[in-house]
Amino acid sequence: MKSVTRSLRILEAVARHQPVTVGELTKLFGLPKSTVQRTLVTLNEAGWLRANRKDTTRWEIGARVLAVRPAALQGASLFAAAREPMIRLRDALNETVHLSVPDALDGMVVVDRVDCDQAVRTFHAIGDTSPLHATAAGHAVLAHLPKSEVDEFETGMLEGYGEETITDPAELRAELHRVRDRGYAVNQNQYLQGVCAIAAPVLDGDGVALAALAVSLPDSRFDPGRLTELGHLVATTAADITARHLA
User: Fold this and answer.
1) What are the backbone dihedrals phi and psi of residue 163, each rounded to the nearest 5 degrees, phi first?
2) What is the pLDDT along the chain (247 residues), one digit of tens a residue?
3) What distance in Å separates the CA atoms of residue 100 and residue 122, rounded to the nearest whole number?
4) Are 231 and 198 in contact (CB under 8 A)?
5) Closest CA to 179 of 133, 225, 240
6) Whether 135 contacts 191, CB under 8 Å
7) For residue 118, which of 45, 55, 168, 182 sits 20 to 30 Å off, Cα-Cα?
């Protein structure tokens, strides 16, 4: 139990001081550097912590923390910025709207959702994870990450989930280029059969994706003829969340 308590206290300290170095945490707790490093690595492997993108010697909270009790984080700036626009988008389309954040390059985690009242609808539980390369939310994020991170991601295996899944790195790069050009990503049966989505990125001040806003709907209601209209609406809503979050 002592090690569990120590891990939780280090997790809380990272949340307060992020991005923070091993040395800073060592001074804060008066623990051996090896003990702090081992705890950080364990929390990283479990998805609770991750290395900072700009300085990998510093640690910050991982996306999995957001999946535990997102209701407790409703006052946080991203949730506060996203909630009203998400409800407005749901009301305009009467389809499920969800907000996902990247868990480093391991996948996307659903952290908030607004349901529609359709008799047949998609469902994404808070905390659900999905692959970056096979979802609209993942493509929206990948298209707005630094090239070095996308190159690193593409060195891994791109698992196929169906005939529509993009598993070729060159094809994925071309798709991400299209996503950047038009401002939104589209998933039609790439991950879950019968499920489609349109997503756009929520960006930080440097233009890097913090999250993705997505509209998810059954394939039976997906109308390619309305794609430009829906994509523009999702992208405009995501841009509104970005502006609110940065204000």
Assistant:
1) -65, -25
2) 578 888 888 988 888 888 899 999 999 899 999 999 999 999 988 888 888 878 889 999 887 776 665 544 444 688 889 999 999 999 999 999 999 998 878 789 888 999 999 999 998 888 788 999 999 999 999 999 988 888 888 888 899 998 999 999 999 999 999 999 999 999 999 999 999 999 999 998 889 899 999 999 999 999 999 999 999 999 999 999 999 998 8
3) 15
4) yes
5) 133
6) yes
7) 182
- The CA-atom distances, in angstroms, between 134 and each of 8, 26, 42, 156 are 33, 40, 28, 14
CB-based burial, 2-28: b 16+ in 10 Å, e otherwise: eeeeebeebbebbeeeebbbbebbbee
The H or E element spanning position 64 is: helix 64-68
- Quick check: 180 and 144 in contact, CB under 8 A? yes
21, 59 contact by CB (below 8 A): yes
Please state, as a whole number, how many other Cβ atoms lie within 10 Å of the Cβ of residue 246: 13
128: CB partners within 8 A, 6+ apart = 109, 110
**Nearest residue to 127 via CA among 103, 151, 145:** 103
CA 81 to chain centre: 15
The type of residue at 117 is D
Q: What is the DSSP string of 13-29?
A: HHHHH-SEEHHHHHHHH
pTM here?
A: 0.74
Structure-block tokens of residue 108: 């996307």
